Amino acid sequence: MDTGNVFAKIFLMVNSNYLCCRFNLKVNKMSKDWTGNSNSVYKTLGASNHTDKDREELDFYATDPIAAELLLREETFSERIWECSCGQGHLSKVFERNGYEVRSTDLVDRGYGEGGVDFLGLHNLEWEGDIITNPPYKYSSEFIYKALSIIPEGRKVAMFLKLQFMEGKGRKRLFMEFPPRIVYVSSSRIMCAKNGDFESKKKEGSAVAYAWYVWEKGYKGETVIKWIN
Question: Which of 66, 128, 119, 127 is nearest to 97 (CA)?
């Protein structure tokens, strides 16, 4: 046996393990040293080298228009509505059919409304109207804070979110500071279809429970929960 080759192989194995450990430690340190926030990540998504198709694959789930129809049976809104994550217009079109003046924007241009609008990145902005959307779920809290910060007292923010959004200590702080006036829980499942493919979604069905969370800026009372659908 060539002892020189054996020792060389042992050296390479040990050295490789050492480099892997160093790499893992560096990655962990980078994660701990991250000083940005999810707002920064959202902005980066819009400027990434993903194609439009890739971004849609990652974060676009269209909402069944029945969600907007159910909301309008329960709530009235100001004449002007901003749908700030409009996708392909599934919610906006319902609001327009019901006589509302709708501003439809989205971070990614999906063929409806105005694309390339980073709602979280807009500054020195005021909106004299209500804001209604199904936001990207991982940035839901940021969308809520932003929406409430740019509307006047008495205007409304309505967000279509998973029922489990009620969970979590961080979101508890949000609800304590800005209690929703009412939460409409859908007793029947409403579909959100990846890339707007409702035909495929109908075959799969939905295992997710959704609700409309409605804030009225300035409201400080108890949150009412009501079942719909």
Answer: 66
**Full DSSP string of the chain:** --HHHHHHHHHHHHHHHHHHHHHHHHHHHHHHH----HHHHHHHHHTSS--HHHHHHHH-EEEPTHHHHHHHHH----SEEEETT-TTSTTHHHHHHTT-EEEEB-SS--SSSB-S--GGG--S---SSEEEE---GGGHHHHHHHHHHHS-TT-EEEEEEEGGGG-SHHHHHHHHHS--SEEEEESS---EEETT-HHHHHHH-----EEEEEEETT--SPPEEEEE-
CB atoms closer than 10 angstroms to residue 47:
9
Q: What is the pTM of this model?
A: 0.74
pLDDT, tens only, 142-182: 999 999 999 999 999 999 999 999 999 999 999 999 999 99
Token pair recorded at residue 40: 């920064």
